[in-house]
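User: Let's play a game. I give you a shape written as C-alpha cells, and you guess the letters that built it. Ready? Here's round one.
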C-alpha cells in the first residue's frame, strides 16, 4: 500500500483460475476492521480472472512499526450446483481447500517523489493456482470501475463511522 495513509488507499489483487473447473474463493484478513475487501468472495469460471479491491482505511502511519497484517485467499473447487456459498465453505473438507497467504507492506513515498508519480495502473499481483497451491476463483462481478470503487470507498467510510458510533453507544450502555 503506498502512503500517505491519511485517506483510503486501494490496492487490487487479480485472481486467476487456470483450471478447467469453477472455483469458489474468499479473502480473509488478520485485521478486518482496517480493510474493506470487495468482492470478498465469489466464483471464478475456468480460465477467467477477477479483480479484488482491497481498501485500507486511514490511520496514523509509524515507519518504525512492522506491519503484521496478512491476507489469505482461500479457494476450493465449486460443487456442481451452488445455492448457499456459506454451506460450500462449511462443508469443504480441509484437504479440498487451497490457500495463498499475502503479507501487507506499507510504503511511504520519498520526499523527492510526488504522490502523483505513483502508478496506480500498475498490473495487480497475479495469484496463479496450480496443483501445488490450488485454484483461484473469480466472483460474479468481473471488475470495478472508478465510480463503483468510489462508491464502495464512501460506503466503507460510512460503515466505519457507524461502527464507531455503535461501539461508543455500546460502551455507554454498559
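Assistant: Ready! My guess for every position:
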Amino acid at each position: 500500500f503506498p502512503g500517505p495513509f491519511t485517506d483510503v488507499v486501494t490496492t487490487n489483487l487479480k485472481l486467476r483460475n487456470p483450471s478447467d473447473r469453477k472455483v469458489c474463493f474468499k479473502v480473509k484478513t488478520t485485521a478486518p476492521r482496517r480493510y474493506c475487501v470487495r468482492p470478498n468472495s465469489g466464483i471464478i469460471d475456468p480460465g477467467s480472472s477477477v479483480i479484488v479491491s482491497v481498501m485500507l482505511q486511514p490511520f496514523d502511519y509509524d515507519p518504525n512499526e512492522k506491519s503484521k497484517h496478512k491476507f489469505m485467499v482461500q479457494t476450493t473447487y465449486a460443487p456442481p450446483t451452488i445455492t448457499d456459498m456459506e454451506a460450500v465453505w462449511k462443508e469443504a473438507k480441509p484437504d479440498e481447500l487451497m490457500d495463498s497467504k499475502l503479507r501487507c507492506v506499507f510504503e511511504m513515498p520519498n520526499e523527492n517523489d510526488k504522490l502523483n508519480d505513483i502508478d496506480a495502473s500498475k498490473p495487480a499481483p497475479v495469484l496463479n493456482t496450480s496443483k501445488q497451491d490450488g485454484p483461484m476463483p473469480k466472483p460474479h462481478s468481473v471488475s470495478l470501475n472508478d465510480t463503483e470503487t468510489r462508491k464502495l470507498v464512501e460506503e466503507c467510510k460510512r460503515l466505519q463511522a457507524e461502527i464507531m458510533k455503535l461501539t461508543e453507544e455500546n460502551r455507554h450502555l454498559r
